[in-house]
Amino acid sequence: MDSDLLLTVGIVMAVLTIPTMLAGWVDGRAPRMGTLMVILSAALLIVAWTQKPGGYRPAEIPGVMLTVVARYLP
After folding, report:
1. Contact at 8 Å (CB) between 45 and 7?
2. What are the structural domain ranges in the chain?
């Protein structure tokens, strides 16, 4: 897989983790799905950073995400 795609999916999954964790906390149950999502998003981000030579700078992340979205939208 492309490291840019891995980075984008990892960031989107990390953002979607927040409501999942809050829902589990508010309902008074263990946030198992949120924990799984945190682990998977962290793994995707680590793989993306290690696969790209030189890694990613924070300033270039929005451009990378827009490029990936533009690549997969018609």
Report:
1. yes
2. 3-72
> Could you give the residue ranges of the DSSP H alpha helices within the chain?
3-26, 32-51, 61-72
CA angle, 66 then 69 then 70, to 5°? 85
Retrieve residue 6's tokens.
Answer: 């891995």
User: Amino acid identity, residue 27?
Assistant: D
Predicted model pTM: 0.87
**By the 8 A CB rule, do 16 and 10 touch?**
no
Closest to 20 in 3D by CA, of 39, 10, 6, 35: 35
Rounded CA gap, 51 and 55, in Å? Answer: 8
Which residue type is seen at 68? Answer: V
- Residue-wise pLDDT for 45-63, tens only, equals 999 999 998 889 999 999 9
Which token pair is 33? 């799905």
Instruction: Identify whether the C-beta of residue 8 lies closer than 8 Å to the C-beta of residue 68.
Output: yes
